[in-house]
Fold these 3 entries.
Entry 1:
Amino acid sequence: MNVVLLVVVGVLCIGGALFVLTSALAMLRARDGLSRINVLSGATGMGIPWMVTGVYVHHVWTHGFDVVDLIKLLVAIAGFIIMSSVASNALGRAAYRSGAPLDPATEPNDLA
C-alpha cells in the first residue's frame, strides 16, 4: 500500500510540474501577449491543481484523513480553475485594449 500511494503522489506532483514546465517553455515560444496569456492558463488550470492534490494525498497518507482538509482541497482546486478562466479572460482583454502588438498570424475577434 505504501508503494502505491508513493507512486500516486509522485505521478500527481511530477505530472503537475510537467504541466507547469510545458507552459513555461511554450510561453518562451509565444510571439505576442495574447498567446502568452493563453499558454499560461494550462499551468494554472491543470498543473497547480495536480500538485495540490499530490500534496493532499501525501498529507492524508502521513497524518490521516480529515474532512476539513478535503474541503480545503476542493475549494482550492475550484479556486484555481475559476481564477485561471477569469484571469486569462481579463488579462487577454486588457492586453488587446492596451494596443499591445499582435503577431501578424493572429486574427483576433472583437475582444474589446
Entry 2:
Amino acid sequence: MSPAEARLKEVPSNMTEAEWQQRVNLAACYRLVSLYGWDDLVDTHISARVPGPDHHFLINPYGLMFDEITASSLVKVDLHGNQLSESEYSINPAGFTIHSAIHEVREDAICVLHLHTLDGTAVSSSAEGLLPLNQTAQLVTHDLAYHDYEGIALDHDERPRLQQDLGDHNHMLLRNHGTLTVGRSVASAFERMYHLERACSMQVRTRALGTPVYPVEDIAIEKNTELLANRDRAELRATNLVWPPLLRKLDRELPGYRS
C-alpha cells in the first residue's frame, strides 16, 4: 500500500479527505510546537480552517497538552463558537476570540498560530519591539504588526481592533502577551513562527551582551524587504521544502499525531 493509499484509508467516514489532511497537518503543528519547546501547558492555540465555504475551523481541545494532540482529537467550530464535532473537551474561550476574529476577515489566513514563549513575550513587552538587527529578524520585520494588550482576550468587542491592527500582515506581536503568525497553510504559519521566535531570541541575546549593536545598512534591509515580499514564493518554500522534512522529524521523534 502506498503512503497516499494509507492516508486515504485512514479518513473517517464522517469527514472529507481534505478535512482529514488538514487535521493531520494541524496536529503535526501542535506536536512540533511542543517539540521545539514553545508550548505553555494547555494554553495558547493554533487553528486551521476546514476546506470549504463554511468558515469552520479546527482548534485544540482545552485540556490536552500539545504533545497529546491528534488529528481526531481536534475540535471543529464555527465562527459563532458552536462546536461541530464531538469532544469531551471544550475550547479555550480566549483562543476562540483571537482565532475567530482573524478567520472572519482574512480569507488567506488558513492557519493562525499564537504562542506565549519567554523570548517572544519579552520582546512583545519591550517598547522598542522587534528590530531588524540581523538577517533572521529581517525575514519578519517587513511584515510585522502590533496589537496593544487589553487583558485576557475574553471580550469579543476586542476582535475589530485585532483585525484592524493585523491588517494584511502575517506576523504580529501581541503587546505584553506573545507572538502570532498566519499563513495560507499550516506549513507557512509554522515557518513564519519559527523565524519570529528565533528573531526574538536573537534580540534578547544581543541585548544581553550589553555591547553596542553593529548596524545593518539600510540598503541591505531594503534589498531583503524587496526579496521577501513575494508571498507566493514563501508559500511554495514552506509547503514543498520545509514542511515535509519537519513531518519526517516528527515521525521519528514524536509520532502518533496522525491518529
Entry 3:
Amino acid sequence: MSSSNSIQVFDSSLRIPRYVLNALQGNECRSNCALPLILKSQDLESRGQTPPHRQIWVVCSSVNSSGAPSVELMLCVTEGYIDSYPVFIYNHLPPDLLTRGYIQPRMAALANALAEALNGNLARVYAVYGQDPLAEAFAWNWTNITGIGNLVDKPYYAAKLSYCTRQTLRSRFLPLPDDLIPEIRLANDEDVREVAQCCHGFASDSAPYILTRDGALREARYLVHNQQVWVHRITRRGTTESSIASIVACSRNSQNNATITKVYTSPDWRRLGCAERLVRRVCEDLLQTKTTVSLFVAHDNPGATAVYSRVGFVGLGQGEEPLETWTEIGFHPQSVRLGHW
C-alpha cells in the first residue's frame, strides 16, 4: 500500500469525515449498504441514543492531486433492526483499479485494522458482502489474520446491483381475473400478521438467515411502523375474503435513492403478476421523490430477473451493459455469531 494511503477507524457515525460522506452521497445506489445506515446512526447518536452493539467503520483513503483526502474503500460493521449486519464493503475505486495487486494491500490493512478494533470479538464478523473481488479479498485476508475459515466456494448470496429511474420505468397493464380485486398501498397495522407471514416465507428461502415466527412478527412490526413495506392485497369479488398476495419492503433509503430489500409473493397467489404489479407501483411512488430505486437480484433467480427487467431495472435484459456483481461470503458457523439482514 502506498505511503499516501491511510487507514482510519471510527466507532461513532458522527465522527465520519465529510469527505467520506460526500463520496457515499455521490453514488447512493452503490452505497445503499453503507450510507442509509450511517444516516440513521447519525440521527440516533445526535439524540443521545446508541445501537445495541458497537458499530465500526474502517476507511482506506488516499491523497488526490490537490492534496485533499479521497476515500477508496470502507468496511461497515453495523446493526440492523433485527440483528447485526454482515460486513458491508463500500468501493469508491474505478473499475480499472479493481485488480488483485491494487486491492490486496489495502484490504489487508483494512482487515488488520478491523481485527484490532473488534478487541477480541472476532465472532462478530460472520459474513462479508461487497463487489466480487473485494468480498473475496476481504475473506482471504480475514481468514489469514484470524484463522477463521471462509465459505468462498459456497457463497451465501451472489447478485447483480441494478437500478430503475423515471426514464427507464416501463408501464404495463397486468389485469387480474374478473373475480379478483387488487388493492396496492403502504401496509398498516391491520396488515402486520399477514406481512409477518410473508417475511417468514421470504426468510425460509434465504438460508442461513431463517426467521422464527416471532422474529418475522418483529420484522413486520418494524417495517409497518416505519412505512417501509407495501402490500398487494386481493379480495374476491362479492365476498369479504381478502388476503395479502405480495409484499415489497424498502428499508435502506437515502436522499436520492431507495433500495428494495424484500420482494415476496405468497405461494397461493403466484403466476398472477402480483410481484411485477407491486414492484412497478412501488417504483412509481418512490420515484416521485427519489432519483433511483436500486435492488440486488440473485444470479440464480431468472424469474425475478425477468420481472425486474420488465419493470425497468437496467442491465437485466439480453444485450444490456453488464452490471456490478456482488458476493456474500460467510465464515465458518462454528466460529462466529450469525446475524441477520
